[in-house]
Write a structure and sequence with these properties.
56 strands; 807 residues; 8% helix; two-stranded antiparallel ribbon; mainly beta; 8 helices
Amino acid sequence: RARVDFDGSAARTSGQMRLDAAGVSGRGALLGRTSLAGQWAIGPETRFQGQLNGDNLRLPGRDPLAGLRSGAAGTPVAPLAAKLADAVERAGAGNRISTTLALVQKGGVGSLAITNAALDARSGARIAIAQGGQMTIAWPGKAAGVDWALDGAITADGGGLPRAALRLARRPGGGFGGELFVDPYAAGDARLALDRVRFTADANGATRFRTAMRLDGPLPDGRLRGLSLPINGRIAANGAVSVNPDCVPLSLVEARYGNFALGQTRQTLCPVGGAMIAMGPGGVSGGVAIRQVDFAGRSGDSPMRLTADDARVLLGKSGFALANPALTIGPQDAPVRLTAAAMDGAMTRNGFAGTLKEAGGQIGTVPLIVEQGAGEWRFADGTLSLKAAMTVRDSQAQARFKPMSVPDFALTLKDGRIAATGTLTAPGKGARVATVDIAHDLSRGAGYANLNVPDLTFDGALQPEDLTPLTLGVVANVRAKVTGDGRIDWTGDKLTSTGTFRTDNANLAAAFGPVEGLSGEIRFTDLIGLVTAPGQQVTIQSVNPGVEVRDGVVRYRLEAGQKVRIEGGGWPFSGGQLVLLPTTMDFSADVDRYMTFRVIGLDAGAFIQAMELDNVSATGTFDGIMPLIFNSRGGRVAGGVLVARQAGMEPLLMPEGVLPTIPCDPTKIGGTLSYVGPVSNEDIGVMGKVAFDALKNLQYKCLTILMDGALDGEMVTNVVFNGVNRDRLGAAPGGLARNFIGLPFIFNVKIAAPFRGLLSTAQSFIDPSSLVQGEIAKQAQEKMRDEGAQPLAVQPLESDKAINREP
């Protein structure tokens, strides 16, 4: 609708006009109800001066802030982005523009002066040319169709918009440049301050700008303070915005996230995907990469350091990734260390969450390292949590246990306290070994680890060497159940550990023979060092190094350096005692280990009955000593001695480490020996038969056995005894038979045979038929032929010299 009033002549006409329109559009902008009113004149020059008013200016389909709110969610600028998006939206929902226009044109040359221009929104927002300012558009232009100039500034304020002032200047050759002054913009906990923004716009409508910002803002359960960053950006003709296509320095005063705080630092930021920030109709994209990350800060009251080879933050996706991140928390001499080969994450509703690969770590000086972890992490409500499948190993170079799987490792870090749990399982076996419960206070550098062994079963599927190398070559074929608890406590670099473990009725194979029914409880005063208090005790139903002994007790202690101190032990043994003497065995290296048994009061008759030896009977009591040496190649007897105790003598307690002097009183009796078993069918000669006849009823005075050799190999046994035949020898020539009654015999025999293939140590002297058959027969016969019937002793020429003192 238009109304025009005019008055004048052909030379000059003037009047008033008013144009009203329901809407006006142009260059993508829409203006609702619009009116133009003023005075006009047409003559030598054309003039118009009036007022333009319109309602509800908007830019449909061209919203440069589209996606800003969602794209910035969870970032420090989120409150600012939300405030700005709301302000623009509310300003577009109801506004009115007004301006004063003054147009002059003469001879193809003209100008349009715009003053008092303003956009006022119901929200309180106002964008205007400052009071006294003017924008002038003139034609024809020098380089373009028109020229323009701005005297004063365009200002913005109110309605949630940042307070700003824009100054523009035309550039020679087209386009324009200018400066933008923006007051610090705040919303909630966020505050953005910009240095003076300098910009240029080319003739095609693209604008470049440069400034520097300082940002404070919230993080999920935290805050960012003093983030300073240069900004170099571009606004395309279609409204798309890109910021920082090149690397720039970043400085930070503090970033706090939950209980974590990063201190003042300076890093170099580089763009990901062409620009750090890209905004357009499709939303927000871009990203930031930091090389050689190195942040120092605090976790609660504890010092903290975060490093990584590379860090990337992706906008729009709210994701980030770190390569080889390493986090240390606590004092430098005993920090908590958490590492990973790769870590990624993204923003969630309450914080962040992501995954870890090749994760690991260690708490202070605790000699346990977790590694090879793969799982998920989460940070929400001030709590960092981790769930992963891990491996735990000994931190010492010479590991005391093999790496174990922890399929259910879980860790939380909140308020400066770490809590972790997990189940230790045997490597490659899946058998549950123990459950672990760990707590650590970062502020004090103190914590504990509880280990519970509810029911560890050793059987055909699992053996101790599957868990620790310390038992390899010491025990094997273990059938046992172990239960117990351990605890490790630490404060700084000081560490203590205790534990109590027990087993009942265990069976195993040791270097000295099979063990059955081993039961006992062990109390560690240093669980990590495998050290116990004195007086540990186990009971043993049966041990068989070649001769079975039953119902024994062993007292011991474990000492530092993988040493076992045997305090003593004993077994009832065929009417006497088998006593284990004190010794120390070193299991830290492949060295000889020594055990010495003392035999006291062994009853020959009881021993024969226990061994179920037919055709043999004997009386007598024996004392002795049995030194054993064990190493990785097995066990052996080194200088074993058994001696028959003569009537009326005290027990012979032989010293360790020296060959004892064995007394033999020819006037005293030691015992009797009778062998009535079959004799070999081989031709052993007359004197061989004489020897066997003598053994049918022999009263010995002195008897000694010396042993040397491997328990699982060849044992060299020297059997020496003398005695008096108490019966007629049927094998002797008729005229001599009665002369052999009551005369002495000396037996001195050396045997080399597998120890466990012999009947037993004692049997070798109680049942000597196999000894004399092959060793003395031929030589005895030859001597009888040469010397006649004079000698009454059966002593082979090749036998060893008797150690008994009786001639």
